[in-house]
Specification:
Layout (H helix, E strand, L loop, with lengths): L1 H5 L8 E3 L4 E3 L1 H58 L7
Antiparallel strand pairs: 1-2
């Protein structure tokens, strides 16, 4: 903990090490909490981005499949309508 803490530029008066806990001053705890919150927001936004992309890809594939189905269906019907003598009477 001392090596991590010394790299942050804080003095040893800002914290005290116990056997199982680290005790921090309120200002230090608030600063660490702010950093933690920023990282959480960053990763939540990243996760949302991936999930929205996944949902958009599923929607695109579904719409694309439907449009291909419609195109296939109409291409099969069109030749029948051209050769139908009763089609002109409608």
């Amino acid at each position: 903990m001392d090596s991590v803490w010394s790299g942050s530029g804080r003095s040893s008066d800002d914290y005290q090490m116990g056997k199982t806990k680290v005790f921090l001053r309120n200002a230090v705890e608030n600063a660490l909490e702010d950093e933690r919150q920023k990282k959480i927001v960053k990763y939540v936004i990243l996760l949302q981005t991936y999930f929205r992309g996944y949902i958009a890809k599923i929607h695109y594939k579904r719409v694309r499949g439907a449009s291909i189905f419609i195109q296939r269906s109409t291409s099969r019907i069109r030749p029948l309508a051209v050769n139908d003598p009763w089609a002109a009477c409608d």
